[in-house]
Design goal:
32% of the residues lie in helices and 38% in strands. A five-stranded mixed β-sheet has the order 1-5-4-3-2, with helices on one face. The protein has one domain: Nuclear Transport Factor 2, Chain: A (Roll), CATH 3.10.450.50. A hairpin with a 2-residue loop joins β2 and β3. α1 runs antiparallel to α2. It is of the alpha+beta class.
């Protein structure tokens, strides 16, 4: 895939949240594979960077169905996007903020999560 346009990036950012909140793991995986066919890097800032696909699967295993994401702000400039999200833990009602950055290259997606580390409730 060529470097996505700003409109394609906006669509990706909105669609990933819709799929996450609907619990559509397979569909979200397919979406990510379209944009990251060559490489996926996911970094929880302050933690070691590991294999992006393992991190993606771990995120679903740990938080899927337990956290609903609400979008506060989404910005796209060039081949990069940034989002401010509220992550609502469904069991406790606790809301944790995150700031996420996305950088798109040809077949590569680099994601960085700035977050408040708390245990899943």
């Amino acid at each position: 895939m060529a470097v996505p346009t700003e409109d394609e990036i906006r669509h990706f950012l909105h669609e990933q949240i819709e799929l996450w909140n609907a619990g559509k793991r397979e569909e979200q995986t397919a979406l990510y594979r379209r944009f990251a066919a060559k490489e996926l890097v996911i970094e929880y800032v302050g933690q070691p960077v590991g294999d992006g696909w393992r991190t993606f699967e771990h995120m679903w295993d740990t938080f899927g169905g337990k956290v609903r994401v609400e979008v506060d702000l989404m910005l796209v400039n060039g081949s990069e996007g940034a989002c401010h999200h509220r992550n609502l833990r469904l069991a406790s009602g606790v809301v944790n903020p995150s700031i996420e950055t996305y950088r798109f290259e040809e077949g590569r997606l680099f994601i960085r999560y700035f977050y408040v580390p708390t245990p899943v409730q």
